[in-house]
């Protein structure tokens, strides 16, 4: 027996979750069904009460349903959205107790020690029922000492089982209320064991032999003889705040003022969690139900409202307020850890200003188009440095070169020349050039451990060629695949 | 030969936008960046295959101070140049232009540089300068006949437009040891 604090579990079952979710957004009169394509057939996935009254049921083929009920309205089901909606409901349910888990199409909540906050279990359940009904969701609620019993009550009876006595509450419920598979429940009914009360009185050993340990395990779980855990949803902090204004607003200054208030709230939340926003999304809802979004990608994780606010200005000027905006919602869609840092007397304002500049430029050309250089360990000229987005990297590296390197590189341009030494005269970019002095060769071998199409021609002998005309070029010769190319220009 | 002395009018006035053309424009830009100090923003268009090489210009400026913006059109280049000039976050903004800009754009760059107290430098094709530019330089590398000058950076800098001063032409060298541009007398003439 499991002893401990008297646990109380609430099980919420949404019998028509999918169709309720769709009808919440777009109400429909009369029979309505959601269809799902299963095994090449459109089958009814979920349906409303009006459709049930017409004699339709789940799993029925959609063509049959249309024949039975010509006025049936339907839409395609979206299982992923349904699951997301259920998680949302789970988050909503944390208003009653912190311990909320998911069932297949419902929620399970451990309300131990939380019921008195709502004036007792009966009032709490009534409150849930009323709120869900107002949201347009039909729900069946059961409350008991164990998860199994609460589930059985939610699905087959609804109500509150008195504490400590699960058997009397469950005794009249059918055996299917034990969360057993369909074949087992049918077989039990064929044996004459129709209700849970019958099952409890039957001898355990033959049942165990015939149906395996799962049946009696489920029974013991429902009656409290075996413990069963509830895995709560992971607590995900929502970095989103919103504000609804009583009168629609349209002036830029008003919207900025609203954004500022939201930013202060959001940044306070970010600060308590030790996070900084990387991407922010401001959604403005207009009175005509239209939505407009302003996205802001920051060059560094930030949580300083005074710095973020001016960065929104550019995006907000492009917003068309129409007949007015009545709701603002600000969400940090991407956050990164931003530990609190020790203040020091050495001012680092320049770095902050540079980050803000990168953010502002990023809204125009995209953050990935602002680069900075990172040193890399390679003799290959193109790979002796890396180019990385400035927003996602820090500049690094000792910049050491033993040989002079050109200040400007371009893809190799072939010139007409032969021989191991640089040509005396050559034409490059329609200029005829004469070699004045050639320094080299500096042989660079391709890195065989990296595939690089540009280095297919093998070894390169680099020469610094100073021309009589002034240009100082970086030429190379490929001895394994004879040819001369220009790849860069010196200062 | 290296009679070290400063080039007149270099560095050009700080809170202005200047122009440079010719084959030695990149070295002019880096020499100016070395004089300005602080962060440098280099703006170029995406199709341009000429890439500045940090290993090569590390002698002039620290590559971690340089940021490169890649834009789609010249309009973006100008907008970004204006915004960054005005921001006070960078000390030098180098933009590679390939089309002539009008008086309005040129004037806006000047005002932005003035407001942000930073220097702007437009690398332009020959003969496509804007009237609003404060100074315009033509830089061309010159062959250094001196045999000792293995990695010489001899250039001829011509000041071909100057709103507040005279024009001129000088032969200059980058002196890596003292980290600055020095004027030399024309050799071999």
Structure description:
- The complex is a heterodimer of chains A (491) and B (189).
- With 491 residues, chain A is an alpha+beta fold.
- Chain A contains 14 helices and 20 strands.
- In chain A, the strands form five sheets. A six-stranded antiparallel β-sheet of chain A has the order 15-20-19-18-17-16, with no helix packed on it. Chain A has a five-stranded mixed β-sheet with strand order 5-6-1-7-8.
- A nine-stranded mixed β-sheet of chain B has the order 4-2-5-6-1-7-8-9-10, sandwiched between helices.
- Chain B is globular, with a radius of gyration of 16 Å.
- The model of chain B has no long low-confidence stretch (mean pLDDT 88).
- Chain B is of the alpha/beta class and 189 residues long.
- At the A-B interface, α14, β13, β15, β17 and β18 of A face α1, β3, α2, β4 and α3 of B.
Uncertain runs of chain B: none
Number of strands of chain B: 10
Largest sheet: spatial strand order of chain B: 4-2-5-6-1-7-8-9-10
Largest beta-sheet details of chain A: 6 strands, antiparallel
The total count of helices of chain A amounts to 14
- The rounded distance between the terminal residues' Cα atoms of chain B is 13 Å
Oligomer: heterodimer
Strand content of chain A: 25-35%
Spatial sequence of strands, sheet with the most strands of chain A: 15-20-19-18-17-16
Main sheet attributes: strand count, strand direction, barrel closure of chain B: 9 strands, mixed
């Amino acid at each position: 027996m499991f002893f401990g604090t008297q646990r109380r579990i609430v099980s919420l079952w949404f019998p028509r979750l999918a169709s309720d979710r769709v009808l919440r957004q777009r109400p429909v009169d009369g029979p309505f069904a959601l269809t799902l394509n299963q095994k090449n057939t459109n089958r009814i996935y979920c349906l409303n009460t009006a459709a049930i009254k017409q004699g339709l049921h789940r799993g029925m083929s959609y063509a049959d349903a249309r024949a039975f009920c010509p006025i049936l309205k339907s839409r395609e089901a979206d299982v992923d959205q349904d699951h997301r909606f259920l998680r949302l409901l789970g988050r909503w349910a944390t208003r009653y107790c912190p311990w909320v888990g998911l069932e297949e199409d419902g929620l399970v909540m451990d309300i131990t020690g939380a019921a008195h906050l709502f004036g007792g279990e009966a009032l709490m359940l009534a409150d849930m029922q009323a709120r869900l009904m107002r949201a347009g969701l039909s729900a069946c609620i059961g409350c008991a000492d164990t998860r199994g019993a609460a589930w059985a009550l939610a699905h087959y009876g609804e109500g509150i089982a008195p504490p400590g006595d699960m058997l009397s509450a469950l005794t009249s419920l059918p055996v299917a209320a034990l969360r057993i598979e369909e074949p087992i429940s049918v077989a039990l009914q064929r044996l004459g064991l129709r209700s849970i009360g019958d099952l409890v009185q039957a001898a355990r050993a033959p049942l165990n032999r015939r149906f395996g340990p799962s049946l009696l395990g489920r029974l013991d779980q429902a009656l409290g003889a075996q413990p069963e855990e509830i895995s709560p949803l992971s607590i995900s902090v929502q970095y989103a705040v919103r504000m609804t204004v009583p009168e629609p607003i349209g002036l830029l200054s008003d919207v900025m003022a609203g954004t500022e208030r939201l930013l202060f709230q959001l940044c306070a939340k970010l600060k308590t969690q030790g996070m900084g926003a990387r991407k922010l999304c401001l959604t403005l809802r207009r009175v005509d139900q239209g939505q407009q979004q302003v996205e802001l990608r920051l060059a560094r994780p930030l949580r300083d409202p005074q710095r973020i606010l001016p960065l929104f200005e550019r995006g907000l000027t492009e917003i068309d307020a129409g007949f007015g905006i009545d709701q603002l919602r600000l969400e940090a869609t991407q956050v990164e850890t931003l530990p609190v840092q020790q203040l020091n007397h050495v001012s680092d304002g320049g770095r902050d200003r540079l980050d803000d500049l990168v953010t502002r430029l990023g809204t125009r050309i995209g953050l990935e188009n602002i680069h900075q250089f990172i040193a890399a360990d390679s003799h290959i000229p193109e790979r002796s440095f890396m180019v990385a987005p400035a927003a996602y990297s820090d500049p690094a590296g000792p910049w050491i070169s033993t040989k002079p390197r050109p200040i400007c590189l371009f893809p190799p341009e072939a010139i007409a020349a032969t021989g191991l030494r640089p040509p005396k005269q050559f034409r490059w970019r329609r200029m005829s050039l004469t070699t004045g002095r050639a320094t080299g060769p500096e042989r660079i071998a391709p890195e065989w451990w990296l595939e690089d199409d540009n280095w297919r021609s093998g070894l390169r002998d680099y020469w610094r060629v100073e021309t009589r005309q002034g240009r100082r070029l970086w030429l190379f010769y490929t001895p394994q695949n004879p040819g001369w190319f220009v790849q860069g220009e010196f200062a | 030969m290296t009679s070290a002395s400063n080039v007149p009018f270099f560095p050009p006035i700080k809170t202005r936008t200047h122009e440079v053309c010719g084959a030695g424009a990149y070295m002019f830009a880096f020499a100016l960046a070395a004089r300005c100090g602080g962060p440098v923003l280099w703006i170029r268009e995406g199709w341009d295959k000429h890439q500045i090489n940090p290993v090569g210009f590390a002698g002039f400026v620290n590559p971690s101070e340089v940021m490169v913006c890649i834009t789609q059109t010249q309009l973006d280049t100008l907008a970004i140049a204006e915004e960054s000039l005005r921001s006070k976050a960078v000390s030098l903004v180098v933009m590679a232009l390939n089309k002539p800009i009008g008086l309005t754009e040129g004037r806006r760059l000047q005002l932005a540089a003035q407001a942000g107290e930073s220097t702007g430098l437009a690398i332009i094709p020959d003969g496509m300068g804007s009237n609003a530019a404060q100074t315009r330089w033509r830089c061309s590398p010159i062959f250094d006949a001196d045999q000792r000058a293995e990695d010489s950076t001899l250039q001829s800098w011509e000041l071909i437009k100057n709103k507040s001063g005279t024009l001129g032409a000088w032969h200059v060298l980058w002196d890596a040891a003292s980290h600055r541009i020095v004027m030399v007398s024309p050799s071999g003439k």
